[in-house]
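Worked problem 6 (solution included).
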Amino acid sequence: VQLQASGGGLVQPGSSLRLACVTSESLKNLNSIGWFRQAPGKEREEVVCIHISDGRTYYVDSVKGRFSVDRDIAKNTVYLQMDSLEPEDTAVYYCAHDRKLSNWPMRREVCVPSEYDSWGQGTQVTVSS
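Solution. The predicted structure is:
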């Protein structure tokens, strides 16, 4: 499966952005989609993961209450709504697919970059005043 992330940009602190991840295959055939980010000089880290069929999610603590993930099956798209953005959210954001059916239910241990098989190119999010 191929994935394409878009929607990044330069925004001020407190602003919102919505990222989109479009997949080349029907979401109905996919397992889990994750959003990850990588800031300069740092390792890639998880943001949120969603199991497509049951909608279960895992959010990293730093984004709980500010970010939300959703899927549009008809559009083969997974969205990441980011509100109350902070400078610390500045990073390249990636979406990825985990094909392993054994990684169920969605939980912290399977929402990590090493569990994800297919990656899209990233989209830059910069939060700065």
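Discussion: The mean pLDDT is 96.
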